[in-house]
Every structure is written in structure tokens, then in C-alpha cells.
Automatic annotation (TrEMBL):
Identification of the protein by name: Redoxin
Species this protein is from: Tessaracoccus lapidicaptus
A Pfam family assignment: AhpC-TSA
InterPro entries: AhpC/TSA (IPR000866), Thioredoxin-like_sf (IPR036249), Thioredoxin_domain (IPR013766)
SUPFAM superfamilies: Thioredoxin-like (SSF52833)
GO molecular function: antioxidant activity; oxidoreductase activity
């Protein structure tokens, strides 16, 4: 008959429980480090992607600017070719609901350098007048907005450049007095200092 092993003493039982708890703590700490490292990598990837996508996109390819006629928030009509020989800066943006877009136009309007350089600024949005007027009034914008159904935005290849599919991003197109497109810039950060913008434009008109 096999002898029965003696039951572990209370001290041995406590020691065994402590060892088991220590092992569980080690496993928890190991998993916490693994999960923490994974979260850190994900955050770094998201931040890196955000910085990469926020890099401005610019181009100096010249072409005859597509002509257009659009109704404005003031109820008038603007035809691009009628503005010659004045250079024109078109500001395509997301429009209603985009505070940074509206603020951008408000700050451009406050900068006298554009008028002094003889540059006409045309903000274009894919909104109705009823949709964009409250935003304009909130920021005190006097310049009428041009209302696009997407046709002009498509002609200038500015759709799908922002956060919303099928919408313009935050882009500028410079057209000289001869109706030639001289420069394009899209800014995913949703902001370009007006003085920097003025410098970009006037440099290319010299």
C-alpha cells in the first residue's frame, strides 16, 4: 500500500499562494507592457500619418484656366474671363460648417496687400447662399462667395482634397491677367497665413 503524502503545512500553503500570485503579477505586467507598447506604436503611426497628410500640395504647371460663370451670395453673377486683365486668386474651400475655412477668408479680406496688388479674390464653395451666409455673417465677411454645384471645382481638380469625399479641400488657384493658371496650393492644415499667401501669389506674378 502506497503511503499517503503528508498534507502541506499552513506555511507551505501560504508560500505556494504567494508564488502563484507573484507569477500572475508578472504576467499582468508583461501584458501591460505589450499592450502599452502597441498603443504607443498606434499613436505614433496616427500622428505620423497626420503630419504626412498635412504637408501642403503645390504645383506650378501652367495652363489656360477653365472659364466659368457662377452666381454669388449677393445674387449677382461673376464670369472669370470678365475680370481680365486683373489677376485672380480663387479660394476653394469646404464652406458652411468649416470655421477655419471662413476664418481664412476673413483674414485674407483684412489684408490690404491683395487689393494693393490688384488681385481679385474669389471664394468658391459648394453650398447654397442660405447655407453659407450665416458663416459669412459670423466672421463679418463682405466679399460675396461664388456658389458652385461641383462643376468648377471638378474643372480645377480640387475635389477630394480635404476631409470630405466629393468636396474641395483648402486650396488656392492663381490666374494671371491673361487667364493663365500660374500656381495651385492645397493646405490640409486648413490654414495659410495671409501674408505668406500674398507672397506666394505676388512672387509668381512678377
Amino acid at each position: 500500500m502506497t503511503p499517503t503524502a503528508p498534507a502541506p503545512s499552513r506555511r507551505e500553503q501560504l508560500k505556494a499562494r504567494q508564488q502563484a500570485e507573484t507569477q500572475r503579477d508578472k504576467k499582468r505586467r508583461t501584458w501591460a507592457r505589450i499592450i502599452g507598447g502597441a498603443v504607443t506604436l498606434i499613436v505614433l503611426a496616427v500622428v505620423g500619418y497626420g503630419l504626412w497628410t498635412a504637408v501642403p500640395e503645390q504645383g506650378d504647371t501652367q495652363r489656360l484656366a477653365p472659364d466659368f460663370t457662377l452666381t454669388t451670395t449677393a445674387g449677382t453673377a461673376v464670369t472669370l474671363s470678365d475680370l481680365r486683365p486683373s489677376p485672380v486668386l480663387i479660394y476653394f474651400n469646404e464652406g458652411a460648417g468649416c470655421a477655419s475655412c471662413t476664418m481664412q477668408m476673413a483674414e485674407i479680406e483684412k489684408n490690404p496687400g491683395f487689393a494693393q496688388a490688384g488681385i481679385t479674390v474669389l471664394p468658391i464653395v459648394m453650398n447654397t447662399a442660405e447655407q453659407i451666409l450665416p458663416d459669412m455673417q459670423q466672421f463679418g465677411i463682405a466679399t460675396p462667395y461664388l456658389l458652385d454645384d461641383g462643376t468648377v471645382s471638378k474643372a480645377y481638380d480640387v475635389l477630394d482634397k480635404g476631409m470630405h469625399p466629393g468636396m474641395p479641400g483648402h486650396g488656392f488657384v492663381l490666374i494671371d491677367g491673361d487667364g493663365v493658371q500660374r500656381w495651385y496650393g492645397n493646405y490640409p492644415s486648413m490654414w495659410l497665413d495671409p501674408e505668406e499667401l500674398l507672397n506666394e501669389v505676388t512672387t509668381r506674378l512678377r
